[in-house]
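Lab notebook, bench 4. Still working through the backlog of constructs that have no structural model yet. Next entry is a single chain of 282 residues. Request: give me the structure tokens for it.
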Amino acid sequence: MLGPDDLGEMRPLLMKARKNDDCDAKDPEPDLPLKPFLIANTVERAVGYEAAKKVQLRNKPEEQNTYCEIIPHPTLSYVQGIVYDLDTINEEEQFLEAQLKSEGVTKVKRITKKVDGTRKNTPLLILTFNALKRPDYVKFGLLRVKVRTFYPSPMLCFKCAEYGHGKNKCPSSSTICLRCSKEHEKAENLPCTNTAFCKNCNGSHTPVTRDCPKYKEEEEAIIKIKVDRDISFSEALNIYRESNRDYSLSNIVQRRLASDSDEKDRIIGRVKSCKVRAAQPS
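Model written out:
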């Protein structure tokens, strides 16, 4: 029987539609023709029968075949970590990317902070690795620098003020005010004068503040679940909701049992009181 490591490292791949126009002129016939039953069986094994039923591949009427290509998954094939290195605080990101390429680093992002209105570099670097597991250390020249888990900030849409997607992928057709959570017209370059209101928690603050309970929920629970378990945002959200649903149901049952117990004690107390009064001589 095969052990967990006998097949080597398994990498998530993405199947992408490929048009005939994308093929090389010298090789007009693509090498990856669509095999519908093979693809269907593969998808079903990966995500289950119910989810696989929602996946559809369509051919254009004028085309006899549709072709696809397999590419590394844009998010699940990579992992991020954060490092602290004071010696390279003034180095450019592109320079560090070139130097760390042999370490499997594909992207370097420096964390900056605003000081007196000016952005200043910090020794913190976010590294993206072409790997499925975050390495413990990375070589900066001859120095070994520890790589720590990186928890990104919650993604907040500045169009609808909801979490989980950015402005460019917002499904909403309307834009709300990021102060009062309402749709309204306002003069250009003039701030909204309405009372601050958060649509996510019904609190008396703007929906973009980090003090919002919803922000803390996203940051401390959902993002942490996503990174620690190496799963998608939607999967982490479902796990969080399920765990909180169970917790809420447990609380409801416990409160109801406590209430029933209190009511039982009150009834017993009244019965005892009546017996005492009945036993007293008139």
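Notes after review: The beta strands are 13-18, 67-72, 79-84, 105-115, 118-129, 137-140, 143-146, 148-149. The two ends are 88 Å apart (CA to CA). Flag for follow-up if needed.
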